[in-house]
Design brief:
Elements: H1 4-36, H2 38-43, H3 56-67, H4 77-106
Helix pairs in contact: 1-4
């Protein structure tokens, strides 16, 4: 029989791997955004996005941009595909974090 600790450890490992995938995709999106959508790059503080002095309200702007799927009107297919990927990985990461926390409190 599989113990609860093993299940929790496996969930934490899967969640951390998916979090790394999400952050890597987000970093590459911001890199692509510099050329494909310079105005949005400035609005989300692309240069300072991953720094400690990053402006949270500007980072939330990117969240709302991806949540409302405003990128579907963009002309660059690479940019729209990367936005789709980041959005899907964000949803997956949030769901896995919720399941892991729920399992942690139940076990």
């Amino acid at each position: 029989m599989i113990s609860g600790d093993t299940i929790l450890l496996a969930l934490m490992l899967i969640t951390s791997v998916n979090m790394a995938r999400y952050l890597t995709a987000l970093r590459s999106l911001i890199f692509i955004m510099r050329e494909a959508h310079p105005l949005l790059y400035q609005q989300v503080d692309g240069r300072g996005f991953f720094t400690t002095h990053g402006n949270m309200s500007k980072q939330v702007r990117l969240y709302h941009y991806l949540k409302s799927k405003e990128y579907h009107h963009h002309h660059d297919p690479v940019f729209t595909d990367k936005c789709d990927r980041v959005r899907e990985l964000f949803v997956l990461c949030v769901a896995l974090t919720g399941v892991t926390l729920l399992a942690g409190f139940m076990l």
